[in-house]
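Morning!

This is the sequence you dropped in the shared folder:
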Amino acid sequence: MMPKDHSLESRARTEKDCQGKRFRVISDQDLWELADILNIPLHQVYLQSMEKGILPLRYFRNMPSITLKEQIILQTSQVAVVGAGGLGGRVIEGLSRLGVGALHIFDPDFFDETNLNRQIFADQNSLGNPKVEVVQECCRLINPTVRITAHRIAVTDQNQDDLFADVQVIVDALDTPGDRLTLAAIAGKCRLPLVHGAVAGFGGRVMVIQPLDGRMEMLYGGQEEARSAEHLLGTPVLSPALVASFQMMAVLNILLGKNQSRDSRMVYMDMEKPSLDLFEL
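The structure's back. Tokens below.
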């Protein structure tokens, strides 16, 4: 129980949305001060606030597309993102802004000049630094309530399934067929949905792969040693930005239990035509 003189209620205020509906909100500064005064973790203060019906102001513009109840679900969710480059970096940044409570990120690489054309955390200051550590620090500044665990490793062994013990969904932001097949096998062992995303040139695709459904093998079976289409066609910034947005929406739907009947469809995007097509696999 919070002391009366340091209560969430005393610091909350009322705001109206664009439709005139009233919400009780509270600022980051007040929540940070309360966490410090009460000596409790910041993410717990945010959760307590929302459970009392007081929306952190940083999430005010999520409403009503994301309700307060759904924001609480996100705050208590955990997601793994494998790959912190063009796709993964944008997914991690977006999920941090959405308020997913914990992110586990995996990537063994360092930022280099070839990343500057598309990777959101690649800049002159990050060159030469480990991707996961740069992403972790940047996202702490974006949303310090999100607990980000950085793993500077590649996920290349099907026996690494213990790394995903606490998550509800895995995001595939890799770029080689062999690594994708390994990740799909791990997701199958863990009985977790895998949000597959791939980019090449001005195109890309997104698909939710359910445990052991075999659709990653349909896409990449027999190509374990092949180079990815991304390496053959290049990757301008437009395609990872778009594909990552579709991946984030898929993660959001999984965590909130929405649109599950549509999981079997693959979305294919061609930005040059432009076109967006749905395929049943």
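Headline: Residues 238-256 form the longest helix (19 residues).

More detail when I'm at my desk.
O.
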